[in-house]
Design a protein that fits this description.
homodimer, alpha/beta, 434 Repressor (Amino-terminal Domain), Rossmann fold, six-stranded parallel sheet, five-stranded mixed sheet, 11 strands, about 40% helix, elongated, DNA-binding, transcription cis-regulatory region binding (chains A, B)
Chain lengths: ~350, ~350
DNA sequence: CGGCCGGGTTCCAACGTTGTACTCAACCCA
DNA sequence: TGGGTTGAGTACAACGTTGGAACCCGGCCG
C-alpha cells in the first residue's frame, strides 16, 4: 500500500508503529492479531500507522516468544521424481489452507540427510516434520519412544514395535498394490512376467526401500496363480530413473525374449522400459504389456499411455498434514496409523493382447 | 547419540548445557560455533554436556539476535511443471552447499501470491527471496527503488527502468531461444509452421508471461526467412499443460492439415501435441516436426524423443543463489543482470523429413 | 454517592542467543 | 621486575514480540 520506499536501514518494529500511533506496543499487537477489545477509533489509528510504516511482524521474535513458527518441514527423496514433486505440491497447497509454510528438504543423499531431518537439523526450526524414512526406519523405532519433534511418517512397512507416542503413520501398502498390478497382467492373459526394479544387494541399504516390498507383491501374485516367482526374470537396476528402465528393457529383450508382461517399480522405470522396448521394436501392448507404479503425470501421455498404480496423493498429503497440525496443536492421543488407498488405472499399455 | 529419550517437556537450552558443564553460556556458545579460544579440556567437557542433553540451538533465537536465519525463499509457479520441480531441486542442492535452507512457495494462484512472496509475506522471515515475477513485474519496478528484502529476480524482459538497488536479475532470453527453435525447423525444410502456446487475451495478464515472448521469437524467425508470421496458425490454449497441447494438436489437424512443423511454448505442451498428433495418426517427424522448450526430464523419453530448447538450469540456480547470498552477506554493489545460456537439443521429433 | 465491574489500555518480564566489555591469569621481552 | 600482550572465560544487555498483571475510567447498582 505504501508508495514510498522505506529509507530506514532497519525494518519497522512494533515499537515504531506504537510511537507513531501514540499507543502502547501491546495495543498494536492486539490490532495485528484482531484481538476483540480495541476501540474502533484506536484500531483505525493503529492500522493507519501500520500501513504508513509498512510494518510486518518478525517471525523470529514471535516464534521465540510463543514457541511456534507455523513452519512444517517436508522431506522427500528428490523432486526429480515426478511422483515426489507432485506430492510436494499437494503438501504445499494443503499447508497454505492451514496457514502454514513448508520448508522443503530432499534426502536422496542418504542416511545422514535423513537423520538430519529427523532430529531437527543442526538447528531447531519448524513445528514438526513429515517424511518418509527410507533408511533409518528401523533405527529410529528401536531408539526412541518419543521423537524429538512432532512427526508424521510416511512409510511402507507395518512397523514392528509400537509407534512413538508423538508420531503418526501414513502407510502405503506397497505389497498389496504391486500384487494388484501383477494380477492385472495375469488377468489379461500374460504368463511370462518380469519385474523391473530389483536393486543390487549391498552393505548399505538402498534409498528405495519400496523395491523389496513391490517385488514381494509381484511374487505373491505369481504364487497365487501357480507360477513360481523364482523363474521370473528380475534384472537389477542401479537406480529408479528412466535410463535404468530403458537399460533393463534392452537386457530383457536380449536374454528373455519370451517375456510378455513387465511390472515396474515405478513410472519412471516404466517409461524407460517403454522407450527400451521401442528401441528393440517390441510392440506394446500387443507383444509385451507394461504396468507402472505412482501414476505420475506423464503416464497418460506416454506412448502407449501407461497403466499404473495410483496412490491417492491428495489423501496422503491432506491426512499427513492434518494429523501433524493436530499434534502441533497439542493433540496428545495415541499414535495413529492409516493406510492410504490406491487404485489401478488401466490404460493402453496393458490392453489385452489381440 | 543419546539413547535415552528426553523426558523434559521443554527442549534443552544453552543454559542447561552451561550448568551441566559448569561453564558460562557464552562458553558453550563458543564451543558450538567452533570459536578458537577454548581450552581443549573445556571443549571436551562442554561437548559431553551437549551430547548428554541433546542440545540444539534454536534458530528463532539466533535469528532474533543476529538478524539472519540462513533461510532463503524460493518461489516458482508450480511444481507440477517438470521444468520448475527440476530447477527447484537444483536450488535446493546449491542451497545445501551454501549451508542454507530453502523455503518453497508456489505462486500459480496469481497476483496475490506473488505480492505476498515479494513483500515477505504476512510475516518477515528468511534472509532473501528468489523468484520469477510473472504478473507483478511492471508494478514492482515502478513502485520501488529499493526492494523490501534482498531479491534475485528470474525474468524474461530486459526491464525498462533501472533495477532497484538491492536486486539482481537473471535473464532468460525467451525471444532468442524461441527464434532458435523456429529457425531449426525452417532449416530442416519445414515451411508451414504453427505455434502452440498462445494465451487468450484478458483483462488480467496471464500467469505465463513467457507466452508473448516466445511467440515473438517465433514470429521473428519466420520473418527472417521471408514468411509472414500473420499466416502461421497459433491456436489459443487455456494453460500450458499437456492436456492443452493435446487439444491444440487436434484442432490443428482439423483446421490446418497443411502444417508440417509445430513450435511449442514448453515441453508439457509439446508432449501433449505429440500425443494429439498420434491420436490423429500424423507421423512425427515424417509429416510434422515438433520442438519444445525447457528440456524437461521427459523430453528424451518421449516418443519420438523431443527436441527442445534447454536453458542451463544448473547455471541459473547456482548464479541466482550465489548472487543472493552475496547480497545477504552485505554486498552493496550495483544491481547485476546476467543472461543465462541456452542451447537447442536436437532429438528425433525434428529429424529431417524423408 | 460510593463501591464494583469490566472494557480498554499500559507496563513489565521473559522467550534463547550472542556481541561487547570486562576480568583474571600466565607469559614474554626489555 | 614491570608493562604489555595474549588466552580463556564471565557478566550483561539487547534483539522484537506477547502473556499477564496492573491500572484507569465511565457507568451501573444498591
Amino acid at each position: 500500500m505504501t508508495t514510498e520506499p522505506s529509507r530506514r536501514r532497519r525494518p519497522p518494529r512494533l515499537r515504531d508503529v506504537a510511537d507513531l500511533a501514540g499507543v502502547s506496543m501491546k495495543t498494536v499487537s492486539n490490532v495485528v492479531h484482531g484481538h476483540p477489545h480495541v476501540r474502533p477509533e484506536t484500531r483505525r489509528r493503529v492500522q493507519a500507522a501500520i500501513d504508513e510504516t509498512g510494518y510486518r511482524p518478525q517471525l523470529a521474535a514471535q516464534h521465540l516468544r510463543t514457541g511456534s513458527s507455523g513452519i512444517v518441514t517436508l522431506a522427500v527423496p528428490s523432486l526429480t521424481f515426478g511422483y515426489f514433486s507432485d506430492i510436494a505440491q499437494h503438501f504445499i497447497d494443503r499447508a497454505r489452507e492451514l496457514d502454514r509454510t513448508v520448508l522443503l528438504h530432499t534426502t536422496s543423499d542418504g542416511r545422514e540427510q535423513e537423520l538430519e531431518v529427523f532430529t531437527g537439523f543442526k538447528r531447531r526450526l519448524g513445528d514438526g516434520v513429515i517424511f518418509n524414512p527410507l533408511l533409518i526406519e528401523e533405527e529410529i523405532f528401536s531408539r526412541y519412544e518419543e521423537f524429538p519433534q512432532p512427526t508424521v511418517l510416511i512409510g511402507e512397512h507395518v512397523p514392528d514395535g509400537a509407534l512413538p507416542r508423538n508420531a503418526d503413520y501414513v502407510r502405503i501398502d506397497n505389497v498389496r498394490a504391486s500384487a494388484d498390478a501383477t494380477s492385472h497382467l495375469l488377468a489379461t492373459g500374460r504368463r511370462r512376467l518380469a519385474f523391473v526394479g530389483a536393486l543390487p544387494p549391498g552393505p548399505a541399504p538402498h534409498p528405495h526401500g519400496s523395491a523389496a516390498l513391490r517385488m514381494t507383491g509381484f511374487g505373491q501374485a505369481l504364487d497365487r496363480h501357480g507360477i513360481d516367482p523364482g523363474t521370473a526374470p528380475a534384472p537389477e537396476v542401479a537406480n529408479w530413473h528412466r535410463t535404468d528402465g530403458r537399460r533393463a528393457a534392452h537386457l530383457l529383450c536380449a536374454e528373455h525374449p519370451e517375456v510378455d508382461g513387465i511390472v515396474c517399480g515405478n513410472d519412471e522405470l516404466a517409461l524407460g522400459v517403454l522407450a527400451g522396448l521401442r528401441d528393440r521394436g517390441r510392440r506394446v501392448p500387443q507383444e509385451v504389456a507394461v504396468v507402472g507404479y505412482d501414476d505420475s503425470p506423464d503416464a497418460p501421455f506416454a506412448y502407449p499411455s501407461l497403466s499404473s498404480i495410483s496412490p491417492d496423493k491428495t489423501f496422503i498429503a491432506r491426512l499427513a498434514l492434518d494429523m501433524l497440525a493436530e499434534r502441533i496443536g497439542g493433540y496428545e492421543g495415541p499414535p495413529r496409523m492409516v493406510t492410504a488407498p490406491h487404485q489401478l488405472i488401466v490404460r493402453d499399455s496393458t490392453a489385452a493382447a489381440d
